[in-house]
Amino acid sequence: MISGMRTSVFFLLAGLAFGFSGLSFAADSSATAASAEGSPYPPSPVIKSMTLDWKTHRLGAQGSDNFQLAWADDDHQYGSFGDGGGFEGTNSDGRVSLGVARVEGDWDSWRGYNVWGGKNAENPAQFPGKSWGMISLAGVLYMWWVPGYQDDPNRSLFEECRLARSVDHGATWTLADWAFLPIEGLSVPTFCVFGRDNAGARDEYVYHYFIHPSEGIKRLEHPVQKIGKIYLARSPQKGFFDSRDAFEFFGGLNDSGAPRWGALETKRPVFEDPAGVGWCVSVSHNPGLNRYLLCTEHDESHIGRMGVYDAPEPWGPWTTVYRWGDEYFGRRMIVENVFFMSFAPKWWSADGLEFTLVFTGGGRGKNNDSFNTIRGRFETGDRQ
User: Fold this and answer.
1) Residue-by-residue DSSP string for 92-132
2) Which contiguous run of DSSP H or E holds residue 187?
3) What CA–CA distance (Å, rounded) separates 104 from 74?
4) How many distinct structural domains can be found in the chain?
5) Which domain does 254 fall in, by range?
6) pTM of this structure
7) CA angle centred on 261, ends 260 and 262, rounded to 5°
8) What is the DSSP letter of 122?
């Protein structure tokens, strides 16, 4: 079950990167100039505006965060949550380090259920950790997992990253017997998410994004990674759970503009921001617009300094849809602590213009420390 809390104000995000237009609030008729100063990429040539309708804001699973969703073969969406009881739970009641939930229904009538861990879960959680990446392939769920240790002050969620697999829609999970390590410049991965059970995938590969971790991060620190680099790997859709040898890394473009793929040691970033990138990231394919959308933080974590970027291919070239700075995400609507957002793969409109954004924040059991959805719309065309 879920709570159905909604906000009641329409929030228009008409301005885009580099000072285009502005932000307006119908509730009080005020308007503030939007600023994307510091964005590393030019404005999107396809998406000229992004509107969020705060009348549609709903939240559930109060006290649990994260929730990057995958659309499975059973027509439900699945996602992991952390440090809470999930749906029906609280920050303390049913609390697990890592749980998996199922979200059923449409964008305006969804219900959430705890599949693995959390309050009144259908199955108990088998191990702790954290995740910001899940995908469904041929009826099998895969999750990028990081430790998220709670008891040892010398260990952190950046310590390693490995895959977990579920062949029963999240009821049980198995961890891979290999890992990628931060010494290799890799941490907190996610998948590029396509349609139902990965329908509409670009090709026969799975695409994986890794953040380059900063050095010396302690257990409870979650800073923006000021190295500011995101790497891309690809793997065959079959067999990638069994060996890291299945992964090829993006190594830049050749003279004809095609991507080079090779060993880990040849990796080159596909996304860079001198202001840093978040410690978690999401990438979604919009089938109607045939654009890839990357969401991550910049400058400082847990204050709503988010960015949405788009590209024609998983490796770019990236352009800016919108970048929140001092006008943090959800200003005047919600508390300023959002650190993660993603697009729900099931809830795109056929033309790709309407979407549902899922976001979460660091409310320590309150406000945005929850599963949040809001409906929105893109406008396309030439910028004025």
Assistant:
1) STT-EEEEEEEEES-TTT-EEEEEESSTT-SB---S--B-S
2) strand 187-193
3) 10
4) 1
5) 40-46+59-380
6) 0.91
7) 125
8) S
